[in-house]
Every structure is written in C-alpha cells, then in structure tokens.
TrEMBL record:
InterPro entries: CHAD_dom (IPR007899), CHAD_dom_sf (IPR038186). Gene3D superfamilies: CHAD domain. Residues 40-330 form the CHAD domain. It comes from Acidiphilium iwatense. It holds the Pfam family CHAD. This is CHAD domain-containing protein.
Length: 330
C-alpha cells in the first residue's frame, strides 16, 4: 500500500519489534480442516467433534493474533462463524436455553475480534485497490497512515482482551458445552432421539434446512435493502459452512462445484458489505479531523468504490440466478 514503511510491512507479516519480538515462525495462521465422518456415527458424536475442531481452530490462531497477524484474526472469526452456523443448523433440535448459552458465548468472543478485523478489511480491501489505481497520491498516503495507526491500536486492545481470564473462561465453557453434549440438557425425548440418528441420515435434512432459509432470503434480490442483503449473506454463509462440515456425506465433487458457485455470490455480497462498513468508518474519520488531505482522500476512496460496486452489480445478479437455479446435490 502506498506510504507503508518496511516496518509496517514486517508488522503485518507477524513481527513485533523490540525486546519482546515474536518470531514469524510462531505466528502462522491456522486454517480449518474439513471434517470427515463415517455415515453411521450418531449426529451427537459428530456435533461434539465439530465443536472440538472449531475451538482448536480458534485457539490455534491466538499466538498469531498476539503477533498482530491479520489473517489470524480472520481465521478466528471464521472458526466462530462456522460454529455458530452449525448450531443454527441444529437449532430446531436443541433446547432453547442451551442454544442461547452456546451462541451467546460465541458472539461474545466474536465481538472482541470485530474492530481489528474491520480495520484490516479497510486497509486491505478498501484502501489498497485505490492506492494501486492512484499510485503516489499524497492524500491517500496520509489516510493510509491514519488507518494504520488505528489498526495498531485495535490490535493492542485485542492482545489485551484475548489474554484475560474472562476470555479463557469463555473458551473453556464452550469446550465443556461440546464435550458434555450439553445440548441434551433440558431437551425432550424426541430431541434426544434425533441426536442418536446417524449423521449420514441427518446430513441431507440439515443442508436442506439451511438451503431453504437462504433461498427464502434471496427472493426479489434486486429490491433487497443493504441490511437485507447482509442477512442474506449470513444465511448463505451458514449454508456454505453446513455443507463443508457435512461434505463427506455427499458426492464431494458435486458439493465442491456447488460451493464454488456459492463463493462467487458470497464474494459479491461480502464486497458490498465491506464498502458499506468502510463508508461509515471513513466518514467518521473525516468528521474527526480538520485535515483537508484526509477529507479529500476519503472522498476519492468512496467515489472509487461506488463506481466499482456499480460495475459489479450485473455479475451479482448472474451469480444470484445461478444460485437459485443450481442443481441440488443432496
């Protein structure tokens, strides 16, 4: 990005400078692995194993977050979103109190990651393309420096938050929830019987349930407001993660083909949401300063993305059509 120093570049690769530097070797982000289940195991066991892998994915990125590695923050958010998605798929079969307990704890952890991730997206997805399109612009350079300062402050706060006993207690509580199969508590006999069913038998029900919700939210796509498109994006993400968790129960090639098409639509909606969030943050930055250079840079960035988003809208309609007409593989 224009105006970024070599020190900034090293920081974003996972280094901290000074006596407490963290080597890059120990700050590598951890990505999720797709689980594989035998079709005959109980869904009860599968959900426990999904919880284990999701929390391991989250915990595995803590070191990299401490070293201020943006991809690690993204991966921790992915881990939590994946767990919330699978819980949403199971929601009709889990006692309300138990669902709320686990979901609220996952939301609590997600909240600690939101601010630094927003600054990362602003820097990488919003500012960087404009800097590449308009190289050497002094106004942009000043805006980049301002955003980088805010991002570093957000990472310092995150490092403090994830090191607290409250954060550790929340992670341990979630681990206990999955390990003890807490979704059985306060549930009916019918719910208990449902969790005893084999994963191969239930997988299609779960995917179909997520697909139905996403498709309902995609109706009249052209008339959806930005908040409604955001809700659609959440439903589509839940569908994607549910398929990924249960892909071993289907024809993997067909599932992957479907997921690739789904990803194109999610990319469109994700970009639109990033621009919407950036507009709010950048206007707040412009209002907080009398620096004319910052104000001019904000105008340039927002105008550039307004034009770029409009040019991508046709592609979004095409990807939406393909999603709604896609052959069901489950």
């Amino acid at each position: 990005m224009t105006g970024r120093t070599s020190e900034d570049g090293e920081r974003r690769l996972g280094k901290r400078h000074g006596p407490h530097a963290v080597p890059v070797l120990f700050a590598r982000p951890v990505r999720a692995k797709r689980p594989v289940f035998a079709s005959g195991i109980p869904i009860d066991t599968a959900l426990r194993d999904i919880g284990r892998s999701g929390l391991a994915h989250f915990i595995g990125n803590m070191q990299a977050v401490s070293a201020e590695t943006p991809e690690a923050v993204h991966q921790m958010r992915v881990a939590l979103r994946r767990l919330r998605s699978i819980l949403a798929a199971f929601k009709p079969n889990i006692a309300t109190a138990q669902y709320r307990l686990a979901n609220n704890q996952l939301k609590l952890l997600s909240g600690t990651l939101e601010t630094p991730r927003n600054w990362d997206v602003l820097a990488e997805e919003i500012l960087l393309p404009v800097c590449n399109a308009v190289p050497g612009d002094e106004n942009l350079r000043r805006l980049v420096a301002m955003v980088e300062s805010e991002r570093q402050a957000a990472y310092r706060k995150l490092g403090e938050d994830i090191g607290t006993s409250a954060c550790r207690a929340t992670v341990l509580s979630l681990g206990h929830w999955f390990e003890t199969h807490a979704w059985r508590e306060s549930g009916s006999a019918e719910q208990a019987a449902w969790f005893a069913r084999p994963v191969g038998e239930v997988a299609r029900i779960l995917v179909a349930r997520s697909h139905r919700k996403a498709k309902q939210r995609s109706r009249n796509f052209g008339t959806l407001s930005p908040p409604e498109r955001h809700e659609l994006r959440i439903a589509l993400k839940r569908l994607r993660y549910t398929i990924e968790f249960l892909a071993s129960q289907f024809d993997v090639g067909a599932a992957d083909f479907y997921l690739k098409r789904l990803s194109l639509l999610l990319n469109d909606l994700g970009y639109a949401n990033d621009v919407r969030t950036a507009r709010i943050v950048l206007r707040e930055l412009a209002d907080s300063t009398d620096d004319g250079a910052i104000r001019r840079a904000v105008t340039l960035v927002l105008d550039w993305h307004k034009h770029n988003r409009a040019s991508r809208e046709t592609g979004s309609y095409k990807h939406m059509r393909r999603f709604r007409q896609a052959k069901i593989f489950w």
